Amino acid sequence: MKARLPGRLLLRIYLVGLAQLVLISFAFNLARRYAEEGNRPRFSERAAAYAVSSWTLFLDEPGKLREVVDQAGQQLRMQVTMRTPDGQLLASNLPSPHPPLSAEELRRLEQERMQSKPEPPHLVRVAIPKTGAMRAYAIIDLPKPPGPPPDLGIMLAVVLGCTAITSIVFARSLAVPLQRLAAAARAFGAGTLSARTGVRRRDELGQVAEAFDEMAERITHLLRSQKELLANVSHELRTPLSRIRVALDLANEGDATLARESLADIAEDLNELERLVSDVLTAARLDLSTEQNPDGATPPLRRELVEAQTLVDKAAARFRSTHPSHRLEVHVDGGTLPVLEADPVLLRRALDNLLDNAGKYSDPQKTVRLLARPQEHSLQLEVRDEGIGIEAKDLPHLFTPFFRSDRSRARKTGGVGLGLALARRIIVAHGGTLTLESQPDQGTTVRITLPAAPDAGQPLTGT
To answer: What CA–CA distance (Å, rounded) separates 322 from 314?
Structure first.
């Protein structure tokens, strides 16, 4: 994308910079004027006192006195008029000397020895000498501070030009990544799921761009997962439906024996369809709960007291019924299993999913083991198989909804990749943990820990 000049942003940054420059200049000039107005009278008095103390030596030498007064005017730009108390002019470097002081002004000057006017013109009156009878007095007008330099306009133009250049550079450093972010957002909204900002910066703009790219990646993954879900569900529905249609066609041919044999197949296919639809509905239920509760996926549980032993027995019976070609070993270690406060339907679903996976991904006649042991205030369950195992690269994604490893696809075991995700979310919703260990061709072990009911030590009184 070709970057264009950031007009509005540039104008705003330039105006802000200009306003800051004006405010700084105003504050500086105000402070300088305040300092000058406050310090000038004191400085004028000290300068006048110092000058007059040197001129006092020449009161009896009129020529020398006029010479030093003229030098003060030429070198220090002091405008000086010196007179005797009776008004006689001793020396002056002004074309029109200051007029003599009145009798009242002379009396006050003799008492105060020095007077200054804070308002312009800043005249200083000094009695000569500093002590004793006043022999003369001096009226001094110190030079004004220098005005602005003659090249102020050039300096101002240079400052404004520099402000414009820095504003353009700064505005482009902000506008270019923002334009790229806007273009990526529009492209992504238009359906280009591969659109990314490509902005790599170590500032807040870089964080925003990185957050957008991460969001786009998650949305892309979600959309792809949904497409895979539709494809997988369509495939999983088509197979049992096709078998049911074939069985019904055979039954319609009038062979009663064949029709009776087909009923068992139809029932099995209907169970498979029911389980598939149930998994999808449970996943939707958990997703809806996640949206309503941003702190985590906590489905609405119908809790009741559940005997862990009963849960294990029912799960084992179902596995033996649905996977008759596999051997199932059930071991209960450590005595009586505790009572759980749980949703029996969801908890059975989680355990059934783990056992089904163990059966799907292991060869017939292989042994699947279900271990249960009580722990302090908890129950631990383990499902072990001797199946194909899972590649290390697939382990981080196993609990992602709709994810299926390449090895599982190669075996054409069916499913839509919801079993492990549902199992883990159900266990976590019960306050437990689910971990998985696996190595290729060595089998998989899934370990569940569930908290016991608070009153697990008491006898169970009906559920």
So the answer is: 12
